[in-house]
């Protein structure tokens, strides 16, 4: 009995010593990958191509008994496409991701371009029987838009819309008269009235954006600019005693396809 008691005590003591030599095991929770979010602000650049359509309408001379301005019958319209031209610029904006997959954002962008084109008057000839030429040029595009996207992980489809501005210049070359006025000494010169404006319109578009690396995303986007119909003052300095200004109605729309890259501020992934 005494021997059994001694053996049990030794066994218990030995077990405690062994347990003391085994380091404690620490349980760790499995690592969870961070959830990607589009929330944050960005700045970037873009390049692409744009095409425009312009229409010049002669409203008739306001002080000449309804006489045309010699490039179209009163109310007559001449339309032409300047063709496809390069554009490039920059953008800045902020996004906020909510309800898991939805992204709301605001963006402003500015583009330089050279959407210039011309056409020959199909209605009348100009001075000395030579053709009349109508020209249009857009040098700048700017927008302020809101956009709504649907995102899954690093990819997002979005639509956008808002206000748009263009900077335009126009001319009508080789008119025989500008309204009821001739140009130059004794009417010897052709009339070449010009006009310019900053035009306000609207923009609607859609695009796809891909966050391809830490802090960087790339996009492809299509935009339609509806710039409306405006009465533009055209000025001819060589008509009358001190030049003559008459209105011409100009209608414009622009379509743009662009590729862009954004640097997203504050992204950690």
- How many domain units? 1
Unreliable stretches, pLDDT < 50, 5 or more residues? Answer: 1-20
Structural class: mainly beta
CATH architecture: Beta Barrel
**What characteristic shape results from the CA principal axes?**
elongated
Element pattern in H and E:
HEEEEEEEE
Q: Give the strand tally.
A: 8
Highest-level CATH class: Mainly Beta
The name CATH uses for the topology is Porin
Radius of gyration over alpha carbons?
Answer: 35 Å
Give the proportion of residues in helices: under 10%
Q: What is the averaged pLDDT score?
A: 86
Number of helices: 1
Oligomer: single chain
Strand content: over 45%
Mind explaining what this structure looks like?
This protein has 269 residues and is mainly β. The chain has a single domain, classed as Porin (Beta Barrel). Helices cover 7% and strands 62% of the residues. It has one helix and eight strands, in the order H-E-E-E-E-E-E-E-E. The chain has one helix spanning 2-21; strands spanning 40-57, 77-98, 102-125, 131-152, 155-173, 194-213, 216-236, 244-265. An eight-stranded antiparallel β-barrel has the order 1-2-3-4-5-6-7-8. A hairpin with a 3-residue loop joins strand 2 (77-98) and strand 3 (102-125). The longest helix is centred in the first third of the chain and has 20 residues, at 2-21. The chain is elongated. 32% of the residues are buried.
């Amino acid at each position: 009995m005494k021997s059994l008691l001694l053996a049990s005590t030794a066994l218990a003591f030995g077990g405690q010593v062994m347990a003391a030599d085994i380091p404690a095991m620490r349980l760790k929770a499995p690592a969870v990958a961070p959830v990607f979010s589009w929330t944050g602000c960005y700045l970037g650049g873009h390049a692409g191509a744009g095409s425009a359509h312009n229409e010049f309408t002669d409203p008739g001379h306001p002080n000449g008994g309804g006489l045309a301005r010699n490039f179209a019958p009163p109310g007559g319209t001449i339309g032409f496409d300047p063709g496809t031209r390069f554009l490039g610029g920059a953008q800045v904006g902020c996004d906020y991701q909510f309800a898991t997959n939805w992204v709301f954002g605001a963006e402003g962008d500015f583009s330089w371009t050279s959407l210039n084109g011309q056409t020959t008057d199909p209605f009348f000839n100009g001075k000395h029987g030579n053709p009349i030429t109508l020209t249009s040029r857009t040098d700048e595009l700017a927008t302020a838009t809101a956009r709504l996207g649907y995102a899954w992980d690093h990819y997002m489809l979005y639509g956008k819309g808002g206000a748009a501005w263009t900077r335009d210049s126009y001319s009508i070359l080789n008119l025989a008269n500008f309204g009821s006025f001739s140009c130059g000494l004794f009417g010897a010169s052709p009339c070449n009235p010009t006009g310019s404006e900053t035009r306000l319109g609207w923009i609607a578009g859609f695009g796809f954006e891909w966050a391809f690396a830490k802090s960087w995303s790339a996009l492809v986007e299509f935009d339609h600019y509806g710039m409306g119909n405006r009465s533009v003052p055209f000025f001819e300095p060589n008509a009358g005693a001190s030049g003559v200004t008459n209105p011409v109605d100009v209608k414009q729309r622009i379509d743009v396809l662009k590729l862009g890259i954004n640097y997203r501020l504050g992204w950690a992934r």
